[in-house]
Amino acid sequence: MTDLIARLVRATPGGAARLALAVLLAALASFSSVALMGVSGWLLSRAAEHPPVMYLTAAAVMVRAFGISRGGFRYLERLVGHDIGLRLQSALRLETYATLARTTLLGRRRGDLLTRVVADVDAVLDLVVRVLLPFLSGLFVLLATTVIIGVFSWPAALALLLSALVA
Asked: What is the pLDDT of residues 119-149, one digit of tens each?
């Protein structure tokens, strides 16, 4: 199935760029989520020490910015991801119907065949949006997070990477 997706991405004008943009937007949404959790955790623990409010304003602004950017990036990722998925689905439908038009369909009822073709072509959209994009963006976020944590503590980065591989 991945060979089919790769062939369709190459055949679709701008397919590779749109797919890369969808993965980038999904990764940015995930980074925003990770940063939101980190900054909000720091803000809560720092606020428990009762410092002057001015010490907390930058963190409060970052929490708000990461919260808004997470939703915005997720929306754009869904928009671009479904766009590429629907374009791939359209290309596959055209290719499938052109191939079926040249065959004789002996021994098959047309309704059964059409139902199966539509279901199989619809599975391409689900594969792109629900499997391929989350996997690629998750892999990207995992590697980037491991590198960032590795700058501060390589044992913690190694533990993160090993736990992700086990999971």
From this structure: 877 787 788 888 888 999 989 999 999 999 9
Distance of CA 17 to the CA centre of its chain: 14
In the structure encoding, which two tokens stand for residue 88, read together?
A: 């791939």
Question: In angstroms, what CA-CA distances link 31 with 20, 100, 161?
Answer: 16, 44, 17
| Interatomic CA distance for residues 35 and 48, integer angstroms | 20
Nearest to 9 by CA among 79, 75, 81, 77: 81
Token pair listed for 65: 């910015």
Helix, strand or coil, per DSSP, at residue 15: helix
Nearest to 21 by CA among 83, 104, 109, 89: 83
pLDDT by residue (tens digit) across 17-41?
A: 888 999 999 999 999 999 999 999 9
Cα 85 to Cα 131: distance, rounded to the nearest angstrom: 11
pTM (predicted TM-score): 0.80
